[in-house]
Amino acid sequence: MREVKDFYDNWEPKDFPNYIKVIMNFADELIFEEISLLLKKFENKEDFLVLDCGCGFGAFYNLTKNFNTIYLDISLNLLKKFKLKERKICANILYLPFKDNTFDLVLCINVLEHVNYLNALNEIKRVLKNNGHLIVVVINKNSLIKEEIFNDFKIFHKPLSIKDFEVKGFKIVYSNSVYFLPPIFKIFPPVILSKLLKYWKTIDKKLSKIFKNKGEFLIIEMVKT
Ligand SMILES: C[S@@+](CC[C@H](N)C(=O)[O-])C[C@H]1O[C@@H](n2cnc3c(N)ncnc32)[C@H](O)[C@@H]1O
Fold first, then answer.
1. Of 7, 8, 142, 191, whose Cβ has the fewest other Cβ atoms within 10 Å?
2. 29 CB contacts (<8 Å, ≥6 apart)?
3. Contact 102, 49 (CB under 8 A)
């Protein structure tokens, strides 16, 4: 656990080579658009409490800024980089500092691959209200594309599959996957790569439909039963 925390405390995506930043932004955009659609049904709900669990420096803040949201991460350093001043908590997903049945929705984006995911799911289940929703994004064990830039993390990092989420106490109500970009795209200079990715987005969305649950990032919505 210490190792993961140290890694993220020293994580400086702004120092990454430009092509990696371009590709990471592209992946974030695909994830953002998918989750935005899932969140539409919660708009205008009153007293709707959300937890962004493993929020990092707030890359997905725009998804939840209109909800009553608490932002939690184990890395104090990343939380300091998060522009929000309030509602940030430094804590471990395995020991969430909240009472049982607190949240209507928990978001957990690219976090479960770093921890004992079953223990984390149990802890999230505890703090979710009955019929509360969990939206998870994880690196997909069954991805067609084995993209090295995402697998190059020198920390505990275990890709998961949709089957891993068939757990007691949760029902899967939606799943999809995004990101089918072949690694060969990395040979292009970042400026050209950015332009190509604009076209690739449409292709990626088509591939999501054809190769269900075979993209690099698995997106799953579950309901606490
Ligand atoms: C790949 S980053 C994702 C950050 C953010 N969700 C995003 O998508 O931009 C993984 C995040 O999980 C956090 N994390 C890792 N282990 C954790 C734990 N045990 N408890 C809480 N957060 C954890 C890291 O500090 C890091 O911010």
1. 191
2. 201
3. yes
Instruction: For ligand 1, atom 27, name the residue with the nearest CA.
Output: 56
Report how far apart, in Å, the C-alpha atoms of 176 and of each of 49, 107, 141, 144, 213 are.
24, 15, 14, 14, 5
- Closest to 26 measured CA to CA, from 186, 220, 225: 186
Contact assessment for residue 160 and residue 138, using Cβ atoms and an 8 Å cutoff:
yes
- Best of 30, 73, 134, 216 for a ligand 1 pocket test (most atoms within 8 Å of beta carbon): 73
Ligand 1 pocket member 8 (CB < 6 A): yes
Atom index in ligand 1 nearest the CA of residue 5 equals: 25
The tens digit of pLDDT for each residue in 153-188 reads 567 788 999 999 999 999 999 999 999 999 889 889
- Give the Å distance between the CA of 101 and the centre of ligand 1: 22
State in words which class domain 2-224 has.
Answer: alpha beta
Least confident stretch, 9-23, 75-89, 201-215: 9-23
pTM for this entry: 0.95
Domain ranges of the chain: 2-224
Note whether 30 and 179 are within 8 A (CB). yes
Q: pLDDT tens for residues 190-215? A: 999 999 999 999 999 999 999 989 99
